[in-house]
Amino acid sequence: MRTVLRRPDFRLLFGGLLASMTAESILLLALAIWVKDLTGSSGLAGATIFAVIAPMMLAPLVGWFVDRYPRRPFFVAANVVTAALLTPLFTVRDAGDVWVVYLVAALYGLSSITLGAALSGLIRELVPVELLAEANGLLQTVRQGMRLIGPLAGAALYAALGGWALAGIGTVGFLTAAAVVTALPTPRQMPPTVRLRWPAELGAGLRHLAGEPALRRALLGYGLGSLVMGFSESLIFAYVDQGLNRDAAFVGVLVTVQGVGGLLGGLCSPALIRRLGEVGTLAAGVAFFSPAALALAYPDIRLGFAAVLLAGVSIPLTMVGLHTLIQRRTPPALVGRVAAATQAVVSGPQAFSIGVGALLVGFLDYRVLFALVGLATLVAGTYLWRGRHLSTPTGTRRPKPTRPVLPAPRRPAEDAASRSGAHRSSPR
What we know:
Elements (H helix, E strand, L loop, with lengths): L1 H4 L2 H32 L2 H12 L5 H8 L4 H15 L12 H29 L5 H30 L1 H20 L15 H5 L1 H8 L1 H17 L2 H12 L6 H47 L4 H29 L5 H26 L5 H20 L26 H14 L3
Helix pairs in contact: 2-3, 2-6, 2-7, 2-8, 3-6, 4-6, 4-15, 5-6, 5-8, 6-15, 7-8, 7-13, 7-14, 10-11, 10-15, 11-13, 11-14, 11-15, 11-16, 12-13, 12-16, 13-14, 13-16
Pfam families: MFS_1
Main location: membrane
GO molecular function: transmembrane transporter activity
């Protein structure tokens, strides 16, 4: 990762992303807490998260829009617009203004898709292909680190200063990211592409995902795992309450341990990609979730810590493997559409599984459900592992240095014959 940080252009981008990722980590949970405080309803607070996820259905349209413009200026403009979208939060006063929070949450979710698609294309332009895994691994490591402090910091800021402070910090974070990225040198121009009718261009990302064997297997395998991995969002509360007989606040301790695992996974992901390839790393990430879920089926605090640590490791492995695969196997002019379509395909099953898990935990034993999650992710990981040959490992051994072979000294007779032959073969 130090290699990619030696690049001045990536260092600038990384500095800007630090500001925007800080704003993101503080905002999401704090908005839900704000709604809970205004209305007293846990259901309305949970609907805030749904409002952020709902715009995923527009991902193909967003990706098509992103791919029509140069990456750097578009990314700068998207950050400025995101900062502007947060300003209505300054008008929120009481429960009657909750609709403003929902509106901002939905628009923020839409801008998150836009920023993600634009960032994927910008990284592809700034970073050489051989350093993509390092760049993605570094960003995932920082994101996982933000999960350790961001939500707690957001809750503390809201408690101390109120919701207006959150809006102000978020606005400053995105404006800072825009200002820093503005200093980036202009990347090389996007290659010219054949313009199709807009319905065909709109579906180009999905067609590429379906037609490229490695991407197709990656999305099918990860989608299968995502259909059950989201169960854990609800099951972990039942595990803490019914299994460990502890208060719900203990979930925060487990989330912290999971964040530590995320840091480890982010740091290890580039090395795994060099050794296993992108699909192999994605397979490892999904498969690691299997023993974690099976361990959580047995209520023991030591096993619980080990399980959530392993689950934390799996998250950045899947993300880095998938994002690097997209950037390497997608033409630059299509990266925005493919990244947005992938986000929709992955986030859809996850959102569905979170809702289904919340329903199932009400009438099924959480241990049975964790066992189901463990078996399903094992199947998904195995399916991905069997296709690891579709993406070759990027690590290559350096050839051993060889001594130059010097020509043997010629004898005088050979030199004379050579000159004679050269004279005879020369044109007159």
